[in-house]
Amino acid sequence: xxxxxxxxxxxxxxxxxxxxxxxxxxxxxxxxxxxxxxxxxxxxxxxxxxxxxxxxxxxxxxxxxxxxxxxxxxxxxxxxxxxxxxxxxxxxxxxxxxxxxxxxxxx
Length: 107
Description:
By secondary structure, the protein is mainly α. The protein is built from 6 helices and no strands. The two termini are 25 Å apart. The relative contact order is 0.13.
């Protein structure tokens, strides 16, 4: 989904309406992931990891951007989503680094 949406964003094509809803749902799941991690560890311990810092910032930015664009009927802020899509791709690459099968791609 990230790659398909990135293609639409970077080629200035209009994505189907279901993509924005799916994007918002995924952003909510990312925020829930951050909140669950914070529920079992202190914020200081969580924040000590650069990867967790990146996830925290990206998750909240994407969450807020998703809701703003859902309610932006005139699409004034649509151009921002190109940059947020790039952030999402970086988050996916960071997650792939943790999977042993993909480790050799990033080392």
